[in-house]
Model the fold of this input.
Amino acid sequence: MEAEGLDWLLVPLHQLVSWVAAGAMVFGGVVPYIPQYRDIRRTQNADGFSTHVCLVLLVANILRILFWFGRHFESPLLWQSIVMILTMLLMLKLCTEVRVANELNIKRRSFADFDPHHFWHWSSFADYVQCVLAFTGVAGYITYLSIDSALFVETLGFLAVLTEAMLGVPQLYRNYRHRSTEGMSLKMVLMWTSGDTFKTAYFLLNSAPLQFSVCGLLQVMVDLAILGQAYAFAHHPQKPAPHAVHPASAKAL
Done:
């Protein structure tokens, strides 16, 4: 009787916790990019942020949405992908505007040039949108033709998870190439690390499929490597070259 009497409190409380958890799942992934977005707007310099991070997340989340059509998963994960795509487009828009404003080379580069040397380094945000739409169209058409194949659907889901696991690699390479983490938001990387650690622990404790756990561990390792770069480059900064290029005109990935 006492347990039944508490139902009026426990049921709404359980519902509230479920809503909060779903909201955290949907919007939690974009939180690490808020400090980076603010830093870029404040400094008007996007050299410290690799826009290939946006590319990785756009591809991963588009593939995840297509995977949903073949194998439905929880709605919060679907909405998370939609919110992340919109967030990455906002990051691309800001980075493109800032880079073009600071770039000494005024030659226009566009997606329609189909120049692999300038892939994902175009002069207009509209070119990035065209590329994303083209990829979505091609991937969507292939998915439509192969949706009845269980092997294709599972492979699509694996590719989505694996692509997301590569999230930090562009930033890791960018830091290595420039021998510096200047302009990179340390808060963003710390949030990456804490989020990926929590997610991986969840996978391991709940006996998730092996590929989820492996990809989660890979993400944590990349995050820790980036934090290691931040420490190493801060304590052993590279000596400036005699004719170093001004940071405002340097091209991040």
Notes: The chain has ten helices and no strands.
